[in-house]
Amino acid sequence: MDMRTPLGKVRGLGSAKSGTEHFWKVRTTSIALVPLLLFYVGFLIAYAGKPYADVVSALSNPFIATINALTIIASIVHMKLGMEEIIQDYIHTEATKFALLILNSFFSLLAGGLCLFAALKIAFAG
Amino acid sequence: MANVTNKRPLSPHLQVYRFIPTMAMSIVHRITGGALYFGTVLVAAWLVAAASGEHAFNQVNWFFGSFVGQVILFGYTWAMLHHLLGGLRHIMWDLGYGFEKEFSTKLAKANLVASIALTVLVWIVVLIVR
């Protein structure tokens, strides 16, 4: 029989050493997204409503394609982490919480996968 | 052992706080974040259509050009600019600045005003360029 108290059992085990990782990733991606999104908005202003050929040829420009891909990656990571925070703040039923966290991962990966594949296909194949 | 977690006093929540600008903009920051989350569907639709070919691209462009599409895109622009400006406030706080009551209240109001002004500006530029 274990006579130790719950506190005694965990004392000295230390943290998982990842306490600030979530916070740090949210901030890093947010800083990256400031210039990326300003560029993106500028691009959309210039190409909103333009014909297909113009848009595709602009998106296949190496510089714009890179910015496009980086914006997609930073946005998806940032939004996945942000939604995790919202779910953890408001959902207190374990089963629902885990289901939503998994759904969040799937949605983020699906949206990110579609955007990234499309961006690369345009860049490489037009 | 008695269930000690059951009847613990809860911390005050939304309904007992007075409505103040910093709190309102904090809530809006979260709501716009949630809206942008689902707004990625629009970006995905646009990029996938552009990658699929001219026909698909024209269809998506038709939707974005319709009245409903334009209203959604206008809201999306505002949500993004509001969240971006709110994010800059957060970075400022993370660095340890701007916690003074009057200043943070002013900045919260400025966040709302600037986000609306910038959204209108972006759309004016779009309409001029087009």
Low-pLDDT parts of chain A are: none
- Which of globular, elongated, flat, extended, rod-shaped describes the shape of chain B? extended
Cα gyration radius of chain B (Å):
20 Å
CATH topology of chain A: 3 helical TM bundles of succinate and fumarate reductases
Overall tally of domains of chain A:
1
The sequence of SSEs of chain B as H and E is HHHH
Mean pLDDT of chain A: 92
The CATH topology annotation of chain B reads as 3 helical TM bundles of succinate and fumarate reductases
Largest Cβ-defined interface: A-B, 31 and 31 residues
Number of domains of chain B: 1
CATH class of chain A: Mainly Alpha
Q: Estimate the strand proportion of chain B.
A: under 5%
Q: What distance separates the N and C termini of chain A?
A: 69 Å
The SS-based structural class of chain A is mainly alpha
Major β-sheet of chain B, in short? none
Tell me the distance between the termini of chain B: 71 Å
Describe the structure.
The complex is a heterodimer of chains A (126) and B (130). Chain A is an all-alpha fold. Chain A has one domain: 3 helical TM bundles of succinate and fumarate reductases. In chain A, helix 4 packs antiparallel against helix 5. Chain A is elongated, with a radius of gyration of 21 Å. The longest helix of chain B has 32 residues. In chain B, helix 1 packs across helix 3 and helix 3 packs antiparallel against helix 4. Helices cover 78% and strands 0% of the residues of chain B. Chain B is built from four helices and no strands. The model of chain B has no long low-confidence stretch (mean pLDDT 92). Chain B has one domain: Up-down Bundle (3 helical TM bundles of succinate and fumarate reductases). By secondary structure, chain B is mostly helical. Chain B is extended, with a radius of gyration of 20 Å. The chains are: A mainly alpha (126), B mainly alpha (130).
